[in-house]
Amino acid sequence: MISNIAKTMSTTKIFTRKFNTSTIRRRIIKIQDKEDFDKYVIQSKEPVVIDFFATWCGPCKMLLPRIEKVIEEYNDTVNLVKVDIDDNAEIAMDYGVSKELL
């Protein structure tokens, strides 16, 4: 019986299906401190979109998918840098972002 299975398997064509997948390079960077900001924003050789946000901010949450879509439309040649203003208040203040604006 095993030999019959082996014969069948060796003579049966195995159909394979190829899937073409494009690897979308997701360039979303969450800033942890001023050093990160300097590295990923100030010293970046690529264009950067900065998303100053707060976890409690409803409009910030609604805006994120739109920002990500724009990043994808540019074939992921733009980095998205997310700065939580509660965790990085000094950076936010340096760029004139305050809780009142969110």
Structure description:
The chain is α/β, with parallel strands linked by helices. The chain has one domain: 3-Layer(aba) Sandwich (Glutaredoxin), CATH 3.40.30. The protein has helices at residues 2-11, 34-42, 58-73, 89-94; strands at 28-30, 48-53, 79-84. Strands 1-3-2 form a 3-stranded parallel beta sheet, with helices on both faces. Strand 2 (48-53), helix 3 and strand 3 (79-84) form a beta-alpha-beta unit. The chain is flat, with a radius of gyration of 24 Å. Mean pLDDT is 81; it is low at 17-25. InterPro entries: Thioredoxin-like_sf, Thioredoxin_CS, Thioredoxin_domain. It comes from Sipha flava.
Task: Give the secondary structure arrangement, pairings included.
Layout: H1 2-11, E1 28-30, H2 34-42, E2 48-53, H3 58-73, E3 79-84, H4 89-94
Parallel strand pairs: 1-3, 2-3
Radius of gyration: 24 Å
Spell out the helices and strands N to C: HEHEHEH
Report the major sheet: 3 strands, parallel
Give the number of DSSP strands. Answer: 3
> What's the average pLDDT?
81
Helix content: 40-55%
**How is the quaternary structure best described?**
single chain
- Give the helix tally: 4
CATH level 1 name: Alpha Beta
Number of domains: 1
Ends apart, CA distance between termini:
72 Å
Please mark out the parts with pLDDT under 50 across 5 or more consecutive residues, or reply none.
Answer: 17-25
Which CATH-level-2 architecture? 3-Layer(aba) Sandwich
Q: How would the global form be characterised?
A: flat
What percent of residues are in strands? 5-15%
CATH superfamily: Glutaredoxin
Indicate the structural class.
alpha/beta
